[in-house]
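WP5 quarterly update. Target: PLP-dependent aminotransferase family protein. Source organism: Marinomonas hwangdonensis. Length: 474 aa.
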Amino acid sequence: MALYETLAQHFIDDIQAQRLPAGSRLPALRTMAKQHQVSMTTATKAYDYLQQTGWIYAQPQSGYFVANQLESTTFPSLNIKSIEQRDPKRFAPLNGYNPASALFSPLGTSMISPELQPSVALQRSIKRVTQRAGKHLFQYPETQGDKGLRSALAEHFRHDNLAFSAADFVITNGCIDAVRLAIESVSKAGDTIAISSPCFSGLLDLLSALSRKVIEIPISDQGLDLDHLETLMQQGLIKASLFSTSNMNPSGMTLTVEQKQALAILSAQYKTPMIEDDVYFELSHQKQSTLPAKYWDKAGYVIWCGSFSKTLAAGLRLGWCVPGRYLTPYLNQHALTSFGVNGLIQSCMAEFINTGEYRSHVNKIRTVLNQHIHHYQQFLLEHLPATAKISAPQGGIVLWVQIPSLNAVQLEKEANKQGIDIRSGACFSTHDFYHDCFRINCGWPLQNTGDKHSTYQQLLSLCDIIKSLIDTSK
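Structure tokens (predicted):
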């Protein structure tokens, strides 16, 4: 065992023995190095190891703290005894799976708070670009996207060990647009698409609008049911699959390297395209992003989609796709439904990436979001019934909560009456299976400011509603 691992184990022993309870501050790096008579390099490696294994988390400008030690949580997974194609339109909630609502509160929509957005740095990039803007900004943009942005993306992802060229990328109006184009490029109305269960509500609405049928593939603590998926491919029952693989919404799960690799292999083996919605890819709570399934795609059957909506600002409506072998039909579909993406925004984003500001921003918010997740978990542990199961994601910005006997649809209605926006389990499946589950966004800081509209107060009110509903159901 390396010296840093021995040092890390010392803290793990203290945490397990509750000599260091959740929320305890750890010694500063320099102090720890002196106390244990090790180098700063060893001390840093020890804390990095503890963060990566979930024992501690860093809080910017404040130090390192002991993380909540949630027991391994096993959520119930959809039990499919027979292969069932379903029309998502038939089973949609009254207002759709992901309804647009005038009601907005921090707990509802999955996004980071404005205070985490690098407004000043982004404004500087916009100003520089507009000052040197040429005539090309007043012309229709290229269908594939601005080459400067595509080159910037290729260079950016090379730092994550993903080897793409500018020619591999297509720029889109956000991730949902990238996914839409992918679906339209590899399937037609009436075709069946395999999706995960639970599945992001926006994808269910999209598939409904495009008149595609779905088959839900269960997710358990072991990951996707790949045997079920392969059976569907063998029998030719699906035209394509559509999965998130990292920091999924709503479960927070990230598939293992082995599962991601298997998805790429299965797609090539059965020549069945897989659309990878990787919008949370860069929001790992570790220093290094996890690799997407696309990394193992040697035959081009994985269509990799992402955007800047979750990492930077949803209002930019700027996304991208690496369509692989489907580049030509993808571009054709893009040309039919759009005259390109806003050229000024593309140039500004290229500038923001090339200056290093974007990577610096992403690295910063990973740490902050990790802190948020731990704060929300601790709050829910203290205020929800002991039977509640709370997810422990290693990335992303949402928590998935299950409380036996809870009517989550009723919870959503009662919360809305008090101006609190959440998503019930019914939003994430065509099956009536997640009736006791709900999702909350953790992109806002959880601070008790005394303001009745604060995130803290809204979450407290939500917990009170839950207790009331459960007491009524007894």
